[in-house]
Design goal:
Length: 237
Amino acid sequence: MAEFLLEVDALEAGYGKKTVLQGVGLRVREGEVVAVLGHNGAGKSTTLKTILGLLPARAGQVRFAGKPWSNGDAVENVRNGMALVPQGRGVFPDLTVTENLMLGAYTQRDAAATAARLREVIELFPLLGERGAQRAGTLSGGEQQMVAVGMALMPRPRLMMMDEPSIGLAPVLVQRVLETARQINRRFGTAIILVEQNIKTALGVADRAYVMKSGRVVLEKPAAELLAAQSSWWELY
Ligand SMILES: Nc1ncnc2c1ncn2[C@@H]1O[C@H](COP(=O)(O)OP(=O)(O)O)[C@@H](O)[C@H]1O
Ligand SMILES: [Mg+2]
């Protein structure tokens, strides 16, 4: 088995004439939880979107699960085991909870496997079963985040990227969402990239962390080390 599930090297991407990612490199091991931190505008969301294939890379390499990565083709990358819980959740408010979860399985062709996976996701989040027939837009913010995570889990990803999952949630729910990430990681062995503004909480659940600034990775350390010395590095970025 290769040492890394995901290897990103010298990744460049942007919007129109603007280059945002200026050579991003990062690694994720099988089953690892990696936090990506950095101020607004550092390029965290752009990094996740480019890895998934929602935005084409202009230069650089990505290797994932020993398979060829598809630059700019999110459907193919999801089929190969990547998932993204987008910033702002991305649930369909007018569809029911169950319909949203089934949409998360859009790349799956095997109906029986999808039904089994739906049961697994509901076992993890019983509330999604109880509220299956309810329109997602009528759920609370925390519950909608649960739907978004459930959707991402439907294709049994090997890597789940979460873009600020705790944004807009009450402090008590922030902790719970990040604990859920850990729980998914333990239960399914899913590797996780966690982009977060809640630095302490994110470092509390992550194994390792990267700090980004201006489209580059400026620091990489074990999460525990950053947590122990937070005041001495955060001001630098
Ligand atoms: N769709 C877009 N079109 C043009 N510029 C964008 C777009 N999305 C993000 N940007 C710009 O790219 C930079 C990085 O943004 P982003 O990756 O969202 O940062 P972060 O997630 O770290 O806050 C910012 O300067 C932002 O304004
Ligand atoms: Mg962002």
